[in-house]
Amino acid sequence: MIIGALLTILGSMIRFQCIFIVLVFLFIVFIKYAFTIKEFNTHFFIKNLLYCVILFISVLCVMGVDKIIWNNSPSYKQYRELNELRASITDIKTYDYSSYASFFESKGLDEIDFHMIESWNLLDQNIYTPEILTNYSTVKKEVHKKYILSVKHLINAFRDRKYQSYTVVWGLILMMFILLFIDPHKFICMIPDFIIAGFLLVYFFIRGRVVYRVEYCIFLCLAVGLITSLNVTTLNNTYKLSLNILGAFILLLKVPLYIPDTNYKTMSDEIYSQYISDTMFRSYDFNIKKYRCDISHRRPHADLIDHIESDNEHYYLMDFSSTIQLIYYNYKPWKRLPVGYYNNYYFYLGGVTYGYPSNNTCWAENNINFKSPLKSLVNDKIILVDSRQYTTKFEYLKKYYYKDISAELITTINGFKLWNFYE
Question: Residue of 15, 72, 174, 308 with fewest CB within 10 Å of its CB?
Protein backbone atom coordinates (compact mmCIF):
# COMPACT_ATOMS: atom_id res chain seq x y z
CA MET A 1 0.00 0.00 0.00
CA ILE A 2 2.84 2.40 0.88
CA ILE A 3 4.71 1.54 -2.33
CA GLY A 4 1.53 2.12 -4.32
CA ALA A 5 1.06 5.53 -2.67
CA LEU A 6 4.65 6.52 -3.44
CA LEU A 7 4.26 5.46 -7.08
CA THR A 8 1.07 7.52 -7.33
CA ILE A 9 2.78 10.62 -5.93
CA LEU A 10 5.78 10.13 -8.22
CA GLY A 11 3.42 9.68 -11.14
CA SER A 12 1.82 13.03 -10.36
CA MET A 13 5.19 14.68 -11.10
CA ILE A 14 5.24 13.35 -14.67
CA ARG A 15 2.47 14.67 -16.92
CA PHE A 16 0.79 15.49 -13.63
CA GLN A 17 -2.71 16.01 -15.05
CA CYS A 18 -2.81 12.37 -16.20
CA ILE A 19 -2.80 11.34 -12.54
CA PHE A 20 -6.42 12.48 -12.26
CA ILE A 21 -7.40 9.88 -14.85
CA VAL A 22 -5.64 7.21 -12.82
CA LEU A 23 -7.15 8.38 -9.51
CA VAL A 24 -10.68 7.86 -10.84
CA PHE A 25 -9.96 4.21 -11.61
CA LEU A 26 -8.00 3.73 -8.38
CA PHE A 27 -11.00 4.95 -6.44
CA ILE A 28 -13.28 2.48 -8.26
CA VAL A 29 -10.84 -0.36 -7.48
CA PHE A 30 -10.85 0.70 -3.82
CA ILE A 31 -14.67 0.78 -3.61
CA LYS A 32 -14.99 -2.68 -5.17
CA TYR A 33 -12.25 -4.05 -2.95
CA ALA A 34 -13.73 -2.53 0.20
CA PHE A 35 -17.17 -4.02 -0.37
CA THR A 36 -16.07 -7.48 -1.46
CA ILE A 37 -13.55 -8.56 1.17
CA LYS A 38 -14.73 -10.60 4.11
CA GLU A 39 -13.12 -8.28 6.67
CA PHE A 40 -15.28 -5.36 5.56
CA ASN A 41 -16.68 -3.18 8.32
CA THR A 42 -17.26 0.51 8.94
CA HIS A 43 -13.90 0.99 10.64
CA PHE A 44 -12.08 -0.68 7.75
CA PHE A 45 -13.92 1.44 5.18
CA ILE A 46 -13.29 4.75 6.99
CA LYS A 47 -9.60 3.90 7.51
CA ASN A 48 -9.02 3.13 3.83
CA LEU A 49 -11.16 6.03 2.64
CA LEU A 50 -9.01 8.30 4.80
CA TYR A 51 -5.96 6.75 3.17
CA CYS A 52 -7.36 7.66 -0.27
CA VAL A 53 -8.14 11.22 0.84
CA ILE A 54 -4.62 11.68 2.24
CA LEU A 55 -3.18 10.33 -1.01
CA PHE A 56 -5.28 12.77 -3.05
CA ILE A 57 -4.29 15.69 -0.82
CA SER A 58 -0.63 14.66 -1.13
CA VAL A 59 -0.89 14.83 -4.93
CA LEU A 60 -2.42 18.30 -4.67
CA CYS A 61 0.38 19.35 -2.29
CA VAL A 62 3.02 18.14 -4.75
CA MET A 63 1.35 20.19 -7.47
CA GLY A 64 1.15 23.17 -5.11
CA VAL A 65 4.86 22.95 -4.28
CA ASP A 66 5.63 22.73 -7.98
CA LYS A 67 3.66 25.92 -8.62
CA ILE A 68 5.36 27.75 -5.74
CA ILE A 69 8.80 26.81 -7.07
CA TRP A 70 7.93 28.08 -10.55
CA ASN A 71 6.38 31.31 -9.27
CA ASN A 72 9.37 32.01 -7.02
CA SER A 73 11.25 33.38 -10.04
CA PRO A 74 9.58 36.18 -12.07
CA SER A 75 11.14 34.98 -15.34
CA TYR A 76 10.00 31.37 -14.84
CA LYS A 77 6.57 32.55 -13.72
CA GLN A 78 6.25 34.62 -16.88
CA TYR A 79 7.30 31.64 -19.00
CA ARG A 80 4.74 29.38 -17.34
CA GLU A 81 1.94 31.90 -17.88
CA LEU A 82 2.97 32.33 -21.51
CA ASN A 83 3.16 28.57 -22.03
CA GLU A 84 -0.27 27.97 -20.48
CA LEU A 85 -1.72 30.67 -22.73
CA ARG A 86 -0.06 29.05 -25.75
CA ALA A 87 -1.37 25.60 -24.74
CA SER A 88 -4.93 26.93 -24.42
CA ILE A 89 -4.76 27.64 -28.17
CA THR A 90 -2.52 25.02 -29.76
CA ASP A 91 -3.91 22.10 -27.73
CA ILE A 92 -7.46 22.58 -29.02
CA LYS A 93 -8.61 21.18 -32.36
CA THR A 94 -8.56 23.76 -35.15
CA TYR A 95 -11.19 24.17 -37.85
CA ASP A 96 -11.02 26.23 -41.05
CA TYR A 97 -10.47 29.98 -40.94
CA SER A 98 -14.11 30.80 -41.69
CA SER A 99 -15.02 29.53 -38.21
CA TYR A 100 -12.92 32.31 -36.62
CA ALA A 101 -12.93 35.00 -39.32
CA SER A 102 -15.27 37.37 -37.45
CA PHE A 103 -12.98 37.35 -34.40
CA PHE A 104 -9.82 38.08 -36.38
CA GLU A 105 -11.49 40.82 -38.41
CA SER A 106 -12.76 42.47 -35.23
CA LYS A 107 -9.15 42.67 -33.99
CA GLY A 108 -7.80 44.05 -37.27
CA LEU A 109 -6.19 40.71 -38.11
CA ASP A 110 -6.68 38.34 -41.06
CA GLU A 111 -6.03 34.81 -42.30
CA ILE A 112 -2.26 35.28 -42.25
CA ASP A 113 -2.43 35.89 -38.50
CA PHE A 114 -4.69 32.85 -38.09
CA HIS A 115 -2.12 30.59 -39.77
CA MET A 116 0.72 32.17 -37.81
CA ILE A 117 -0.98 31.48 -34.48
CA GLU A 118 -2.09 27.98 -35.40
CA SER A 119 1.39 26.98 -36.64
CA TRP A 120 2.92 27.78 -33.22
CA ASN A 121 4.29 31.08 -34.57
CA LEU A 122 2.30 33.21 -32.12
CA LEU A 123 5.61 34.75 -31.09
CA ASP A 124 5.22 38.45 -31.76
CA GLN A 125 4.12 39.85 -28.41
CA ASN A 126 3.69 43.29 -29.99
CA ILE A 127 1.00 41.98 -32.34
CA TYR A 128 -0.32 38.83 -30.68
CA THR A 129 -0.74 40.33 -27.25
CA PRO A 130 -1.81 38.25 -24.23
CA GLU A 131 -5.24 39.89 -24.44
CA ILE A 132 -5.76 38.88 -28.07
CA LEU A 133 -4.51 35.33 -27.44
CA THR A 134 -6.73 34.97 -24.36
CA ASN A 135 -9.78 36.13 -26.32
CA TYR A 136 -8.94 33.85 -29.22
CA SER A 137 -8.55 30.90 -26.84
CA THR A 138 -12.08 31.54 -25.56
CA VAL A 139 -13.50 31.83 -29.09
CA LYS A 140 -11.69 28.68 -30.19
CA LYS A 141 -13.12 26.64 -27.30
CA GLU A 142 -16.63 27.88 -28.10
CA VAL A 143 -16.26 26.95 -31.78
CA HIS A 144 -14.94 23.51 -30.85
CA LYS A 145 -17.86 22.86 -28.50
CA LYS A 146 -20.31 23.82 -31.24
CA TYR A 147 -18.81 21.23 -33.56
CA ILE A 148 -18.04 18.42 -31.14
CA LEU A 149 -21.38 18.51 -29.28
CA SER A 150 -23.00 17.29 -32.47
CA VAL A 151 -23.55 13.52 -32.08
CA LYS A 152 -22.65 12.97 -35.74
CA HIS A 153 -19.38 14.88 -35.37
CA LEU A 154 -18.53 13.00 -32.15
CA ILE A 155 -19.09 9.64 -33.86
CA ASN A 156 -16.89 10.73 -36.77
CA ALA A 157 -14.20 11.85 -34.31
CA PHE A 158 -14.24 8.39 -32.69
CA ARG A 159 -14.10 6.73 -36.10
CA ASP A 160 -11.14 8.87 -37.18
CA ARG A 161 -9.04 7.55 -34.28
CA LYS A 162 -9.26 4.01 -35.76
CA TYR A 163 -9.33 2.20 -32.43
CA GLN A 164 -9.70 -1.10 -34.26
CA SER A 165 -6.00 -0.85 -35.15
CA TYR A 166 -4.78 -0.30 -31.55
CA THR A 167 -3.01 -3.33 -30.11
CA VAL A 168 -3.98 -2.19 -26.62
CA VAL A 169 -7.67 -2.19 -27.60
CA TRP A 170 -7.47 -5.76 -28.91
CA GLY A 171 -5.75 -6.73 -25.67
CA LEU A 172 -8.63 -5.21 -23.71
CA ILE A 173 -11.21 -7.05 -25.82
CA LEU A 174 -9.43 -10.36 -25.21
CA MET A 175 -9.24 -9.69 -21.47
CA MET A 176 -12.95 -8.83 -21.40
CA PHE A 177 -13.91 -12.12 -23.05
CA ILE A 178 -11.65 -14.08 -20.68
CA LEU A 179 -13.25 -12.44 -17.65
CA LEU A 180 -16.75 -12.93 -19.08
CA PHE A 181 -16.08 -16.62 -19.68
CA ILE A 182 -14.39 -17.36 -16.35
CA ASP A 183 -16.36 -15.13 -13.98
CA PRO A 184 -19.48 -13.42 -15.43
CA HIS A 185 -20.25 -11.82 -12.06
CA LYS A 186 -16.87 -10.04 -11.98
CA PHE A 187 -17.45 -8.95 -15.57
CA ILE A 188 -20.70 -7.27 -14.51
CA CYS A 189 -18.80 -5.57 -11.70
CA MET A 190 -16.50 -4.09 -14.35
CA ILE A 191 -19.36 -2.19 -16.01
CA PRO A 192 -18.65 1.00 -13.98
CA ASP A 193 -15.05 0.90 -15.28
CA PHE A 194 -16.27 0.62 -18.87
CA ILE A 195 -18.68 3.52 -18.34
CA ILE A 196 -15.95 5.69 -16.77
CA ALA A 197 -13.54 4.89 -19.62
CA GLY A 198 -16.18 5.81 -22.21
CA PHE A 199 -17.05 8.99 -20.33
CA LEU A 200 -13.38 10.04 -20.14
CA LEU A 201 -12.87 9.48 -23.86
CA VAL A 202 -15.96 11.57 -24.68
CA TYR A 203 -14.79 14.24 -22.24
CA PHE A 204 -11.37 14.53 -23.89
CA PHE A 205 -12.96 14.56 -27.33
CA ILE A 206 -15.10 17.48 -26.20
CA ARG A 207 -12.04 19.19 -24.73
CA GLY A 208 -10.13 18.57 -27.97
CA ARG A 209 -7.34 16.79 -26.08
CA VAL A 210 -7.46 13.29 -27.54
CA VAL A 211 -3.87 12.19 -28.14
CA TYR A 212 -2.44 8.69 -27.85
CA ARG A 213 -0.84 9.18 -24.43
CA VAL A 214 -4.26 10.13 -23.00
CA GLU A 215 -5.98 7.22 -24.72
CA TYR A 216 -3.32 4.78 -23.56
CA CYS A 217 -3.60 6.05 -19.99
CA ILE A 218 -7.35 5.33 -20.02
CA PHE A 219 -6.94 1.92 -21.67
CA LEU A 220 -4.13 0.93 -19.30
CA CYS A 221 -6.26 1.84 -16.27
CA LEU A 222 -9.08 -0.26 -17.70
CA ALA A 223 -6.68 -3.16 -18.23
CA VAL A 224 -5.49 -2.93 -14.61
CA GLY A 225 -9.12 -3.01 -13.50
CA LEU A 226 -9.75 -6.16 -15.56
CA ILE A 227 -6.61 -7.85 -14.22
CA THR A 228 -7.39 -7.08 -10.58
CA SER A 229 -10.97 -8.31 -11.03
CA LEU A 230 -9.80 -11.84 -11.73
CA ASN A 231 -8.50 -13.73 -8.69
CA VAL A 232 -6.18 -16.26 -10.30
CA THR A 233 -5.57 -18.10 -7.01
CA THR A 234 -9.19 -19.30 -6.95
CA LEU A 235 -9.08 -20.80 -10.45
CA ASN A 236 -8.75 -24.52 -11.03
CA ASN A 237 -5.65 -25.95 -12.68
CA THR A 238 -7.30 -26.27 -16.10
CA TYR A 239 -8.10 -22.53 -16.22
CA LYS A 240 -4.61 -21.63 -14.99
CA LEU A 241 -2.95 -23.81 -17.62
CA SER A 242 -5.20 -22.38 -20.36
CA LEU A 243 -4.39 -18.81 -19.34
CA ASN A 244 -0.65 -19.55 -19.27
CA ILE A 245 -0.78 -21.12 -22.74
CA LEU A 246 -2.86 -18.22 -24.08
CA GLY A 247 -0.48 -15.67 -22.55
CA ALA A 248 2.57 -17.41 -24.04
CA PHE A 249 0.85 -17.59 -27.44
CA ILE A 250 0.05 -13.85 -27.38
CA LEU A 251 3.64 -13.02 -26.42
CA LEU A 252 4.88 -15.07 -29.38
CA LEU A 253 2.50 -13.19 -31.68
CA LYS A 254 3.92 -9.91 -30.41
CA VAL A 255 7.57 -10.88 -30.99
CA PRO A 256 7.62 -9.82 -34.69
CA LEU A 257 6.55 -6.30 -33.66
CA TYR A 258 9.81 -5.85 -31.76
CA ILE A 259 12.19 -7.15 -34.41
CA PRO A 260 13.84 -3.98 -35.76
CA ASP A 261 13.27 -3.14 -39.41
CA THR A 262 16.61 -3.46 -41.23
CA ASN A 263 15.57 -1.57 -44.37
CA TYR A 264 17.56 1.40 -43.09
CA LYS A 265 20.71 -0.42 -44.26
CA THR A 266 19.76 -0.21 -47.94
CA MET A 267 17.77 3.06 -48.07
CA SER A 268 19.26 6.19 -49.55
CA ASP A 269 19.57 9.23 -47.26
CA GLU A 270 16.56 10.88 -48.86
CA ILE A 271 14.32 7.78 -48.66
CA TYR A 272 15.42 7.02 -45.10
CA SER A 273 14.67 10.58 -43.94
CA GLN A 274 11.23 10.39 -45.52
CA TYR A 275 10.62 6.96 -43.98
CA ILE A 276 11.38 8.33 -40.50
CA SER A 277 9.17 11.36 -41.15
CA ASP A 278 6.22 9.26 -42.35
CA THR A 279 6.51 6.87 -39.40
CA MET A 280 7.45 9.07 -36.46
CA PHE A 281 6.23 12.60 -37.20
CA ARG A 282 2.78 12.20 -35.65
CA SER A 283 4.04 11.30 -32.18
CA TYR A 284 0.61 12.06 -30.75
CA ASP A 285 -1.07 9.27 -32.78
CA PHE A 286 -0.82 5.49 -32.67
CA ASN A 287 1.12 3.94 -35.55
CA ILE A 288 1.99 0.27 -35.38
CA LYS A 289 5.00 0.87 -37.67
CA LYS A 290 6.72 2.70 -34.80
CA TYR A 291 7.31 -0.63 -33.04
CA ARG A 292 9.79 -1.78 -35.70
CA CYS A 293 11.17 1.55 -36.87
CA ASP A 294 14.94 1.56 -36.22
CA ILE A 295 16.39 5.00 -35.49
CA SER A 296 19.25 3.98 -33.19
CA HIS A 297 21.67 2.68 -35.83
CA ARG A 298 21.49 5.56 -38.27
CA ARG A 299 20.94 9.27 -37.85
CA PRO A 300 17.92 10.15 -40.01
CA HIS A 301 18.99 13.76 -40.64
CA ALA A 302 22.75 13.51 -40.28
CA ASP A 303 23.45 15.71 -43.32
CA LEU A 304 21.36 18.58 -41.90
CA ILE A 305 22.88 18.40 -38.42
CA ASP A 306 26.41 18.11 -39.80
CA HIS A 307 25.77 21.09 -42.10
CA ILE A 308 24.57 23.25 -39.19
CA GLU A 309 27.41 22.21 -36.87
CA SER A 310 30.04 22.95 -39.52
CA ASP A 311 28.65 26.40 -40.37
CA ASN A 312 30.42 29.02 -38.27
CA GLU A 313 28.92 31.96 -40.18
CA HIS A 314 25.21 31.51 -39.45
CA TYR A 315 22.75 30.78 -36.68
CA TYR A 316 19.76 28.56 -37.52
CA LEU A 317 16.17 28.97 -36.42
CA MET A 318 14.08 25.81 -36.79
CA ASP A 319 10.40 26.07 -37.60
CA PHE A 320 8.69 24.24 -34.75
CA SER A 321 6.03 22.40 -36.75
CA SER A 322 8.59 21.26 -39.37
CA THR A 323 11.32 19.99 -37.09
CA ILE A 324 10.28 19.33 -33.48
CA GLN A 325 8.92 15.83 -34.11
CA LEU A 326 12.01 14.69 -36.00
CA ILE A 327 15.27 16.44 -35.14
CA TYR A 328 15.69 14.92 -31.67
CA TYR A 329 15.98 11.43 -33.21
CA ASN A 330 19.48 12.44 -34.32
CA TYR A 331 20.74 12.49 -30.73
CA LYS A 332 21.29 9.74 -28.20
CA PRO A 333 19.46 10.33 -24.89
CA TRP A 334 22.40 9.03 -22.85
CA LYS A 335 24.92 11.37 -24.51
CA ARG A 336 24.96 14.91 -23.17
CA LEU A 337 25.37 17.75 -25.65
CA PRO A 338 28.23 20.22 -25.08
CA VAL A 339 27.45 23.24 -22.89
CA GLY A 340 26.24 26.10 -25.11
CA TYR A 341 25.36 23.78 -28.00
CA TYR A 342 22.05 25.48 -28.80
CA ASN A 343 23.56 28.93 -28.27
CA ASN A 344 26.13 28.16 -30.97
CA TYR A 345 24.15 26.32 -33.63
CA TYR A 346 20.36 26.43 -33.63
CA PHE A 347 17.18 26.73 -31.64
CA TYR A 348 13.48 26.11 -32.24
CA LEU A 349 11.43 29.06 -33.40
CA GLY A 350 8.48 28.86 -31.03
CA GLY A 351 7.09 25.78 -29.33
CA VAL A 352 6.96 24.74 -25.70
CA THR A 353 10.29 26.43 -24.88
CA TYR A 354 9.24 29.88 -26.10
CA GLY A 355 9.73 32.40 -23.30
CA TYR A 356 11.83 30.01 -21.23
CA PRO A 357 14.66 32.02 -19.58
CA SER A 358 17.47 30.02 -21.21
CA ASN A 359 15.65 30.31 -24.56
CA ASN A 360 15.63 34.10 -24.18
CA THR A 361 19.32 34.11 -23.24
CA CYS A 362 20.19 31.93 -26.22
CA TRP A 363 18.40 34.28 -28.61
CA ALA A 364 19.86 37.39 -27.00
CA GLU A 365 23.37 36.06 -27.61
CA ASN A 366 22.49 35.78 -31.30
CA ASN A 367 20.87 39.24 -31.56
CA ILE A 368 17.34 37.84 -31.75
CA ASN A 369 14.62 39.84 -30.02
CA PHE A 370 12.66 37.30 -27.96
CA LYS A 371 9.55 39.52 -27.96
CA SER A 372 9.52 39.61 -31.76
CA PRO A 373 11.90 36.86 -32.94
CA LEU A 374 10.46 36.51 -36.42
CA LYS A 375 11.50 40.05 -37.23
CA SER A 376 15.09 38.88 -36.80
CA LEU A 377 14.78 36.50 -39.75
CA VAL A 378 15.76 39.36 -42.07
CA ASN A 379 19.41 39.06 -41.17
CA ASP A 380 22.35 37.75 -43.19
CA LYS A 381 23.48 35.77 -40.16
CA ILE A 382 20.16 33.94 -39.66
CA ILE A 383 18.94 30.95 -41.68
CA LEU A 384 15.43 29.55 -41.34
CA VAL A 385 14.89 25.79 -41.54
CA ASP A 386 11.27 25.42 -42.58
CA SER A 387 9.45 22.98 -44.85
CA ARG A 388 5.88 23.77 -43.84
CA GLN A 389 5.25 27.38 -42.82
CA TYR A 390 7.78 29.47 -44.77
CA THR A 391 5.11 31.07 -46.97
CA THR A 392 3.09 32.11 -43.92
CA LYS A 393 6.15 33.66 -42.30
CA PHE A 394 7.02 35.48 -45.51
CA GLU A 395 3.53 37.00 -45.79
CA TYR A 396 3.54 37.94 -42.11
CA LEU A 397 6.89 39.76 -42.36
CA LYS A 398 5.76 41.53 -45.53
CA LYS A 399 2.52 42.62 -43.88
CA TYR A 400 3.98 43.99 -40.65
CA TYR A 401 7.67 44.81 -41.08
CA TYR A 402 9.29 44.55 -44.50
CA LYS A 403 7.27 45.65 -47.55
CA ASP A 404 10.10 44.75 -49.96
CA ILE A 405 11.08 41.45 -48.38
CA SER A 406 12.41 38.60 -50.51
CA ALA A 407 13.10 34.96 -49.76
CA GLU A 408 15.81 32.74 -51.17
CA LEU A 409 15.76 28.96 -50.96
CA ILE A 410 19.40 28.19 -50.21
CA THR A 411 19.19 24.40 -50.36
CA THR A 412 17.20 21.36 -49.27
CA ILE A 413 18.86 18.86 -46.94
CA ASN A 414 17.19 15.62 -45.75
CA GLY A 415 13.85 17.05 -46.87
CA PHE A 416 14.23 20.29 -44.89
CA LYS A 417 14.28 23.60 -46.77
CA LEU A 418 16.83 26.24 -45.73
CA TRP A 419 15.79 29.86 -46.30
CA ASN A 420 17.36 33.28 -46.21
CA PHE A 421 15.04 36.30 -45.91
CA TYR A 422 16.33 39.71 -46.97
CA GLU A 423 15.24 43.13 -48.19
Answer: 72
